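Re: your question about CLRN1 protein

S., sorry for the slow reply, the queue was backed up all week. Below is exactly what I fed in.
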Amino acid sequence: MPAQQKKLIFCTAGVLSLACALGTAAAVGTQLWVRGTILCTTGALLVNASGPELHKFIGDIQYGLFSGQRVRQCGLGGRPFQFSFFPDLLKIIPASIHVSVILFCTVLIVFALVGAGFFMFNAFGSPYETLHGPVGLYLWSFISCSCGCLIMILFSSEVKIHHLSEKIANFKEGTFTFKTHREQFANSFWTILVCSLVQFLNALLIRFAGFEFPFSKSKDSGTITGAVDLMY
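Result:
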């Protein structure tokens, strides 16, 4: 492949990797990871609410990795409540999983930035044979993509398996009991999915540029090299 086309491919991969890092950093700081509604089951059972009356007992909830807000409704209008995971909810959430999600987000940002730098270096500089060359490019893309997948798996298990929304909804609620009525992953969660796909696309761009996967070498080249060594 001509050098100009390789430069264009590496520049494209570098820009995508940089956008991935910035997108992940923006997603970490938002409250748009999960959105949903919560039902005040205690109030609904007290008045035997059904149909249109049930909407008076359905509130809203949304949260991210560090903070969020909920609006509780128990028939007397909405009452907003702001909360923070650290240190408010630390005792009721699966802290190890939550901290791991934040840690992998940090690793994703760092390695996406590193990958962007090396992509640009390979586009405009003289690539080295090791970490600055194809091996390094595959490595940074693989680590970033793996971190993105782990973030989605861990956060999904935290929300779905450990019922994170219900734990947040019932935080400091002694009288009323809340149940998740509807929940869905919001924009920031899907940003992580897009970033993972971008890193996978970068690996395909490296292959498209003409570089073989670094851990597979043809047997013929090894045989020829050995024969040349024996001759000398």
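Helices lie at 3-28, 41-47, 95-124, 134-161, 164-169, 187-208, 219-231. Residues 3-32+87-177+186-210 form one domain.

Happy to talk it through on Thursday.
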